[in-house]
Design brief:
The chain is an alpha+beta fold and 136 residues long. The protein is 24% helix and 29% strand. The strands form two sheets. The protein has a four-stranded mixed β-sheet. It has a two-stranded antiparallel sheet with strand order 1-2. Helix 1 packs parallel to helix 2. The longest helix has 17 residues. It starts with 6 loop residues before the first strand and ends with a strand. The relative contact order is 0.29. This is RidA family protein.
Amino acid sequence: MTQSTAFQLSNPEGLYDPSGNAYSHVAEVRADSRLLFIAGQGGEDSNGQLSPLFAEQARQALANLELALASKGASLAQVFKLTLLIVEHSEARLRQWVAEADRAWGLHMKPTCTLIPVPRLALDGMLVEIEAVAAL
């Protein structure tokens, strides 16, 4: 995965290193970039089915995000901001999310991210939703 030239991610000195939690502190986006705003993607497959397992939903939500990005000629490499909603958030779910983010982004810096624990999402059984902003 080649990082985008439309933005630069950084972790300023004096702030803790967030890489172990799969995010970066700062994204600086070039003014001439084309922006994509991707609605929250859940863990449902193309038939609308949800796995009961958080890790599987997280992986599917990332796959859905990749499909939405690809429809506009983009990839995860162009994502600089995530909003992550997790039902019944826990350290275990955070570790599962980090594993899925590491699988998706590899060793590259992860986008800035705000994780918001929520009591429920739009659909019964939905455990995770990922909203993204990308720059091309």
